[in-house]
Amino acid sequence: MNRGSLTRKLCLGVLVCIVAFLLNPGCAHNRDVVRLEPIMPPPEPAIIVEETSEATPLREGYIVPVEHPDLRISSDYGARRGNRRHKGIDLDVPEGVPVVAARDGIARFSGWDGAYGKIIILGHEEGYETAYAHLCECCVGENEKVEQGQVIGRVGCTGNATGSHLHFELRHNGEPIDPNAFLSVAAR
Fold first, then answer.
1. Hey, which CATH number is domain 47-187, 2.70.70.10, 3.60.15.10, 3.40.50.300, 2.60.40.1180?
2. 86 and 167 in contact (C-beta within 8 Å)?
3. CA 124 to chain centroid
4. Are 131 and 116 within 8 A, CB to CB?
5. Which of 21, 30, 69, 158 has its CA 20 to 30 A from that of 48?
6. Residue 187 burial class via C-beta count within 10 angstroms: exposed 0-12, middle 13-18, buried 19 and up
7. pTM for the full model?
8. How do the domains of the chain map onto residue ranges?
9. Three-state SS for 181?
C-alpha cells in the first residue's frame, strides 16, 4: 500500500474509511485517522401512478383508488425479507386522503381485521376482489353496493402499519395477484 492510500470496507451497512500511512523512518505511527460514515443504500426508483387529468384507468375497467400529487408505491407486490410475501402494494399518501372504489362492486367486508387494521373488501365480477387496508375510517357497510369512484374510506395507519398509507390488494378467486398488472405506472 502507498502512503496516503485509502482503503474502504463495507461492513454491516457502515462504510469504514481507513487512511493508512506507511511508516517513515524516524516517524511515529499515525493511528488517529480512522473515520466511520454511515452508508445509505441508493434510493430505489419510486414508482408513481401516471398523472392524468382524469382518474388513471386500470386494465379491465379499474381506477386507482387514491389521488394525491405525490402518489407513489412505497412497497411493491411480491417477495419481502425471509419467506414473507407482500400480497399487495402500498400507496404512500397522507392520512385522511379519500379512498375510492377501484371498480363497481359490493362490500363483502368492512371493519377491523388484525394486521390489516380497518379494511374494506369489495367483490367484483368474474371472481375479482379488491382490498383497501390500514384505513382510519370505513365509509361503507357490509353488503352495500358501491360504484366506481365512490368514496369508501379514508387512508390511515391502523393495524400493522408503520405510517399512513393505503395497502391495496387485488385478488382473483381468493388468490392475490399483482396489482401492477392492472395499474398504469411510471418510474419517477
1. 2.70.70.10
2. no
3. 24
4. yes
5. 158
6. exposed
7. 0.65
8. 5-38, 47-187
9. helix
Q: Pseudo-torsion of CA 140, 141, 145, 150, nearest 10°?
A: 0
121: β partners: 109, 131
Angle at 88 between CA 102 and CA 66, to 5 degrees: 35
Helices first, then strands: H and E counts in the chain:
0, 17
**Of 156 and 54, the one with more pLDDT:** 156
Give yes or no for residue 133 having a pLDDT over 70: yes
Single-letter residue type at 146: V
Q: What is the tens place of the pLDDT at every residue in 1-29?
A: 444 433 333 333 433 333 333 344 444 44
- If DSSP codes are grouped into helix, strand and coil, which group holds residue 139? coil
**C-alpha cell belonging to residue 14:** 457502515
Q: Do 146 and 104 touch, CB atoms closer than 8 A?
A: yes
